[in-house]
Amino acid sequence: MAIKKLEPKWLNPREMKAWRSYIQTVRRMMEALEADLSPHELSLPDYEVLVLLSEAEGRRLRMTELAEAGLISKSRLSHRMKVMEKAGWVKREACKEDRRGLWAVMTDRGWKTLVKAAPDHTESIRNRFIDHLTVKDQEDMARIFDRVHSQLREQYLAEQDKK
Amino acid sequence: MAIKKLEPKWLNPREMKAWRSYIQTVRRMMEALEADLSPHELSLPDYEVLVLLSEAEGRRLRMTELAEAGLISKSRLSHRMKVMEKAGWVKREACKEDRRGLWAVMTDRGWKTLVKAAPDHTESIRNRFIDHLTVKDQEDMARIFDRVHSQLREQYLAEQDKK
DNA sequence: ACGCTTTAGTTGAAAGTTGAACAAATATTG
DNA sequence: CAATATTTGTTCAACTTTCAACTAAAGCGT
Hints:
The structure is a homodimer of 163-residue chains. Chain A has six helices and three strands; from the N terminus they run H-H-E-H-H-E-E-H-H. The first copy, chain A, is mainly alpha-helical and 163 residues long. Chain A has one domain: Winged helix-like DNA-binding domain superfamily/Winged helix DNA-binding domain (Arc Repressor Mutant, subunit A). A three-stranded antiparallel sheet of chain A has the order 1-3-2. In chain A, helix 1 packs across helix 5 and helix 3 packs across helix 4. The longest helix of chain A is centred in the last third of the chain and has 28 residues. The relative contact order of chain A is 0.10. Chains A and B meet through helix 1, helix 5 and helix 6 of A and helix 1, helix 5 and helix 6 of B.
């Protein structure tokens, strides 16, 4: 890969502009979404957990599945679940098929909380992001980020193999 | 704003696709960037602090300026600075013009750490993101996110005024 | 069936973050 | 110029996240 040495080491102005614009906006937007959600007493990660459970068969997922789908560590999920269980949104049930395992199950109360928060959150996503994109922007975004995403996955797998 | 009621409440498939693609990729990418930086014993926020100081006049900024530029709270910066000071990358100096204040100053050691990490980090940004964008993608991204960013700022200011 | 390895999930301690309360210095206003 | 309000940065306590160690149950190879 001798050619790699010839690639420019630094970002050129156009690249830097895209990068900075991107990275700053991400953070601001996430903060805004968090703030919009806070009246519902939900954090973004907790909301995400509820969404994943709500979409699952029987509104339940194994802990590991949930952690992977939510892109959080098992340890973190375990701690979070304790808090969310106390809040009454979820409960944990023994798993008969695999007695090491547990089902994370969404309660009715959790469902109601989600249903109540969802329209506001959707509105928030619109206000803070999507409404500022044209249809073409949306298509461009999906295309670009799908590509980046699949690249990241490939890189991840390649890095795993090396180990 | 009666018209607002007529807006669709839910995201349509194209919008949902753009949103999910975006949000998942953001998180994966940040994780990858963090991991790429970790051999330098730097976290992304700490790297950002060093970059901001490195670009500042005299490699120094007031704590509040630094917190605002880095999009972190003063409290968090205060805690971080204690750690970074212990690592020898920065120091805090009394401010003569305003005796309440402090200068966050980058040390030579901090500069060396940054200079050593920067090429790898740049390479990382390329590998994980920019190289997967065409020039046109880059321009689109900058345009889109500049727009979203300015909207967020406007919204932020409007919300402040209400209070 | 026997060890050995892997997988599922939890735990506890350390580190990081948040938000409110605070002290000190400066700015503003009557 | 005194009283009040604001700004600067830190600190404490509560909470969250990470990392490594751990238990228990499967799985696997012989």
